Amino acid sequence: MSDLSNNIYQEILAEKNVLLVGPTDSGKTWYVKNILIPFLQEKKIKVIYCSDPDFIPKQINEIDVLIVDEIETLLDQDFLEADSSNSKPYYSKEYLNKVRSWHDKLKEIMIPSVFILTRNSHGEIKNIIDNHSEMDWGVKVECFIFEKKV
């Protein structure tokens, strides 16, 4: 995990954003709270963690890095829908509205950030990593895969 933390740190130093992509229950949140945040704090980086975009604080002037968990992108919606065997829409209208309101909040962030995204299959993760370097809300990101270490 130290390589991942160092890679994220280098992106932050370059004032870039990071997208951390991995499966459900792979330990992304645990890693961020227990390894990445203490690592950044040791480097004298002021960090705030938000459990999802609903909890982004209004004032982030005194912060160096914002970490936002449970973000969602619609960039790969067609890919996810094509891969789904469900006849219902992949996302409900209510969820789409929530995601769009999150994107409005995410647009306001003007400091380097780490965004955490869940995608479960190898194909879903690879699709994000290989095809998306800019998020729905207009920020460029460097993508990293989070893999559970056994």
Can you describe what's shown?
By secondary structure, the protein is α/β, with parallel strands linked by helices. The mean pLDDT is 92. The chain contains 5 helices and 5 strands. The chain has a single domain, classed as 3-Layer(aba) Sandwich (Rossmann fold). It has a 5-stranded parallel sheet, sandwiched between helices. 25% of the residues are buried. It has helices at 2-13, 28-42, 77-83, 93-107, 122-131, and strands spanning 17-22, 47-50, 65-71, 113-118, 141-145.
- Taking the alpha carbons of the first and last residues, their distance comes to 12 Å
Largest sheet: 5 strands, parallel
User: Approximately how much beta-strand content do the residues carry?
Assistant: 15-25%
CATH architecture: 3-Layer(aba) Sandwich
**If helices are DSSP runs of H or I spanning 4 or more residues, what is the number of helices?**
5
Pattern of helices and strands: HEHEEHHEHE
Mean pLDDT: 92
Per the CATH scheme, the topology name is: Rossmann fold
Q: Return the structural class.
A: alpha/beta
What is the count of β-strands?
A: 5
Task: Name some characteristics of this structure.
single chain, 150 residues, alpha/beta, Rossmann fold, 5-stranded parallel β-sheet, 5 helices, 5 strands, globular
